[in-house]
Design a protein that fits this description.
The chain is an alpha/beta fold. The protein folds into two domains: 170 residues, P-loop containing nucleotide triphosphate hydrolases (Rossmann fold, 3-Layer(aba) Sandwich), CATH 3.40.50; 93 residues, no CATH class. It has 16 helices and five strands. The radius of gyration is 20 Å and the shape is globular.
């Protein structure tokens, strides 16, 4: 029996609709997606680290034309593109890019929801970023993947995207804009289906996945994630994990929906301006939507990139 390897990857960006896209692609009869999102095999020190375990994610494939997985850490991590190509060959790469200031805020809310962040506000998290990067103890002891605390830095897309274009070539990389994706998901799904050489006329059921949520008690969420396992160590590990995750989900569900803060995000977006200009030249796209907030209709070919 032939071993199935992925022939395409959704490589990022995080908090830019990749969970929804993963679910839409799952519905296509000619596409097999790993049941686990974010296996992150091609990232050192994070996610799956055993090749056989990684391949097992695709053992359920039965003749589908396309097989893929979604790991958003692949976009930020420098080692990922070359590593992916050395192991999987010239696979197809899908990227979704979002207004970097809003993406940073959404990442912060996700970190709060999951109990990985104790900064009480997004502004405080941004303030802490520099000191955290200079603190080796934080990098080794933080409860979540270290780059997820780099709210600003992980939104500097131009070099991240360039690595994929240089490694795989323009014909194997599709770049979409989140603000278009949320308005025209069917059109973009159809374009992706064509990119993957599967039936472009299939219509997935569209709904939003992985909504942001601020926990009812932020400090409790962080305590459950970081201290809870120690204080409940007398409980069998499997039951302990299930109990803590149930409490984390309950605290999140009882919380509130976050709201974007233009007073904070507007100056943050200005910090990205020079990088966005580089990105526009790199992918041959007008990204004024990130400043103006009103996206233009998606049209085929707008993903195409060119080098500076």
């Amino acid at each position: 029996m032939d071993v199935v390897r992925p022939n395409f990857l959704i490589a990022g960006a995080g908090k830019a609709g990749t969970t929804s896209l993963h679910e839409y692609l799952c519905q296509h009869p000619d596409i097999f997606m790993s049941a686990l999102k974010e296996p992150s095999f091609f990232v050192r020190g994070y996610g799956y680290d055993n090749w056989e375990d990684y391949l097992a994610l695709f053992a359920g494939a039965h003749g589908e034309k396309a097989a893929g997985e979604s790991s958003t850490a692949y976009l930020y991590c420098e080692e990922s593109p070359a590593w992916i190509k050395s192991v999987l060959g010239n696979v197809r790469i899908i990227l979704i890019l979002r207004n970097p200031a809003q993406r940073a805020a959404s990442l912060y809310w996700w970190m709060l929801r999951e109990g990985y962040e104790n900064a009480p506000t997004f502004a405080k998290a941004l303030e802490l970023e520099s000191s955290r990067t200079q603190n080796p103890n934080f990098r080794s002891q933080c409860p979540q993947f270290y780059p997820d605390y780099l709210y600003y830095r992980s939104g500097l897309y131009s070099e991240q995207v360039r690595r994929y274009l240089d490694t795989f070539g323009e014909g194997h990389v599709r770049i979409y804009i989140f603000e278009e994706f949320i308005k025209q998901p069917l059109e973009i799904c159809r374009d992706i289906f064509e990119f993957l050489n599967v039936d472009p006329n299939f219509r997935p059921t569209i709904q939003v996945y992985n909504r942001a949520q601020i926990p009812a008690f932020v400090s409790l969420q962080y305590w459950l994630r970081t201290k809870g396992p120690h204080y409940l160590r007398f409980v069998p590990s499997r039951l302990r994990q299930r109990f803590l995750l149930a409490l984390i989900k309950l605290n999140a569900r009882k919380g509130s929906l976050p709201a974007h803060d233009p007073q904070l995000e507007k100056p943050l977006l200005e910090r990205y301006r020079s990088d966005i200009t580089k990105l526009e030249r790199l992918i041959n796209r007008d990204l004024s939507v990130w400043y103006e907030g009103e996206s233009k209709p998606f049209s085929k070919g707008k993903w195409q990139a060119r080098n500076i």
